Amino acid sequence: MTERLIRVGHSPDPDDAFMFYGLSSGKVKLENIRIEHQLEDIQTLNERAMKGELEVTAISAHAYAFVADKYWILRTGASMGEGYGPVIVSKRFKTLADLRGKTVATPGKLTTATLLFRIFTEGIDHVDIPFDQIMDRVESAEFDAGLLIHESQITYGDLGFTKIVDFGELWSRMYNGLPLPLGLDVVRKDVGENVAHQLSQGLRESIQYGYAHLKEAIPYALQYGRGISEELGERFVKMYVSELTIDMGENGKRALELLFKLGTERRVIPAIPDLRLF
């Protein structure tokens, strides 16, 4: 049987690299499927998903509300904060009240971080810029504060920034410890249900391979760590590649439903999408 090419988009970050290590290294194989990895930042992947360009892609949970007509959600591959998440930081201000009338740098219109900002803040302006420029541009006082994602969530304190709010902490406190959905892996509907299930199982096996072979998988993942130490890199990977990443389960699904409900109430997203998981 002819091999089917499946293009898989994911971000060049330690957690995504770790998840896909088993597949990208060839240690996990899918019958009659050839995987081609395409590495892009998450905002670019969100935009590509709007056009349905890739068969499988990582996207922000926020973005799924706009691509649910084209994609199904994989049970495997979600990034969920368990008491932690995107963080607003500053060097000049200490509270959300201090930021009223000020401007925060946010990491992209369709990122879940920006959705959370719009749900949980009032009277604060924001401007979307590339996520990896946020700390530098807050440091230079171009922006009053910044909303951090990726590994800068755990390095900002060492660089002299003050945490104003961690949306993962806020979410957990408000919703009885429910995990905070941040990123998803999705599969395009036209691949069919059988292939969707096969891809979900392959990603699950890839994550399990990474955990069974940490001494291989962590150094591979740290190639994408933008200079962070092995200790911090492993900590970051384990924060966002958890049991919920292997299978989000009912708790993860309920958390997604809540996120979309809040987003529709604030009129940031048009409607709560159908959440069929594969």
**Structural class of the helices, strands and pairings?**
alpha/beta
Fold-level CATH name of the largest domain:
D-Maltodextrin-Binding Protein, domain 2
H/E topology pattern: EHHEHEHEEEEHEHEHEHEHHHHH
**Contiguous runs where pLDDT drops below 50 for at least 5 residues:** none
What gap, in angstroms, lies between the N and C termini? Answer: 24 Å
The figure for the number of domains is 2
Count of helical segments?
Answer: 13
Shape: globular
**What is the oligomer described by this structure?**
single chain
Tell me the β content. Answer: 15-25%
CATH architecture of the largest domain: 3-Layer(aba) Sandwich
The biggest beta sheet is recorded as: 6 strands, mixed
Nearest-integer average pLDDT: 94
Q: What is the CATH class of the largest domain?
A: Alpha Beta
CATH superfamily of the largest domain: Periplasmic binding protein-like II
Radius of gyration, CA atoms, in whole angstroms: 18 Å
The percent range for helix content is 40-55%
